[in-house]
Each structure stands twice: as structure tokens, then as C-alpha cells.
């Protein structure tokens, strides 16, 4: 007999998962209170790094059902959600998402839905990359300086090189100029 679990997540402490629990019950799922996992953690954290979800994942067994109200409860983006659903499917766990009509994401229809969502997410990422490249090319053509401004003036960079040539340590120079050791190494590598 399969057990039914619910994973409910909110991002801040002034929010509550009670609405999600009620939504799951209203959809006709009976979840024992000890099988409702509620967690307050940012949605930007992947499911595999959420303490509550990790404990839940360890409790789930083949044949179990996991209910979520929305896909974003399962991961930070489409790729994370897909990886999470695939990991659960490998474990023999069915995943139902109420926002998608309660579809089992591990079924053929659910996999198709996930495929469409992943394709849209990839398309959006490609558009973002394309817009970024276009913007950078325009800025460069307009003569704008790209990247982070240099931490040290050309005079200070020459002084750093002179200090290294005189045998001063990376750490001493970094401390003297208020930059990291890596910054001193980059100056050395660039030669100016």
C-alpha cells in the first residue's frame, strides 16, 4: 500500500505552509500529519540542499506518492525540478503537482509536461544569453569599458610589480594595497 506525503515550502518566516496543506486536502489527498514536510527556505536553494527535503527523500520508498501544490516547491528552476523528479522516479516515487491538474510527473503525460517546461526554460535561457551578448556588443561598440574597474591605479600596479621584484610577499602587498592575494597575482601575470 502506497503512502502519501506532502512537501510544503515557503520562503520567509512570516509565511505559512497551511494554505498548501489545505489545498492538498481540498484536492482529495489524505496525508497523515507526520507525512507533511513543511520547510521555510528560499526557493533559490536547490531541493538537494534543503534539509527538510533531504530528510523527506530519505523517508520515501518505492510506491510512495509525493504531493506538491506547485512545481516551484520542488526546485529553484526547471532543470532542478526535472532532476528532482527524475531522482524521485528512480526511487519509485510518484510525484503529483496540483498546479498541473494533479498530474503524476513520473507518468507519460507528466514527463511530456516536464519536457515542455524544460524546453521553455531552455528557450528563455537562450534568449537571456542572446540579449546579454547583444547588449555587451553594443556597449563595446559605443566605447564603454566592460567588466569590473581595476582595483588599483596604473601607478599602484607598477609599485606592486616593483615590490614583487624586490621580494615582497603576496600577502604583504595585498594588505598594503587593500586587495586580495589573487589581485596581486593577476597584476603580476598581466605585467602591468
Strand order of the largest sheet: 2-1-3-4-5
Main β-sheet, in a few words? 5 strands, mixed
Q: If classified by CATH, what would the architecture of the largest domain be?
A: 3-Layer(aba) Sandwich
Q: Can you tell me the residue ranges where pLDDT is under 50 for at least 5 consecutive residues?
A: none
The overall number of domains is: 2
Number of helix segments?
7
Structural class, by secondary structure, is: alpha/beta
- Binned strand content: 5-15%
Tell me the overall shape. elongated
The N- to C-terminal Cα distance equals 71 Å
Give me the Rg, rounded: 26 Å
Order of helices and strands: EHEHEHEEHHHH
Helix content: 40-55%
Level-1 CATH class name of the largest domain: Alpha Beta
Please name the fourth-level CATH homologous superfamily of the largest domain: Resolvase, N-terminal catalytic domain
Number of strands: 5
Mean pLDDT: 90
Annotated CATH topology of the largest domain: Rossmann fold
Amino acid at each position: 500500500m502506497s503512502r502519501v506525503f506532502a512537501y510544503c515550502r515557503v520562503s520567509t518566516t512570516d509565511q505559512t505552509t497551511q494554505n498548501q496543506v489545505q489545498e492538498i486536502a481540498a484536492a482529495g489527498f489524505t496525508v497523515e500529519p507526520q507525512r507533511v514536510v513543511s520547510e521555510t527556505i528560499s526557493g533559490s536553494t536547490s531541493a538537494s540542499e534543503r534539509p527538510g527535503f533531504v530528510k523527506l527523500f530519505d523517508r520515501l520508498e518505492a510506491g510512495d506518492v509525493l504531493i506538491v501544490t506547485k512545481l516551484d516547491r520542488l526546485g529553484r528552476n526547471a532543470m532542478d525540478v526535472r532532476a528532482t523528479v527524475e531522482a524521485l522516479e528512480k526511487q519509485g516515487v510518484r510525484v503529483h503537482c496540483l498546479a498541473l491538474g494533479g498530474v503524476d510527473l513520473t507518468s507519460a503525460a507528466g514527463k511530456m509536461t516536464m519536457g515542455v517546461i524544460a524546453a521553455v526554460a531552455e528557450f528563455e535561457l537562450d534568449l537571456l544569453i542572446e540579449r546579454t551578448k547583444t547588449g555587451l556588443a553594443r556597449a563595446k561598440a559605443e566605447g564603454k569599458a566592460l567588466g569590473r574597474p581595476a582595483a588599483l591605479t596604473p601607478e599602484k600596479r607598477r609599485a606592486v610589480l616593483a615590490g614583487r621584484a624586490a621580494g615582497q610577499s603576496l600577502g604583504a602587498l595585498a594588505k598594503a594595497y587593500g586587495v586580495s592575494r589573487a589581485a596581486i597575482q593577476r597584476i603580476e601575470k598581466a605585467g602591468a
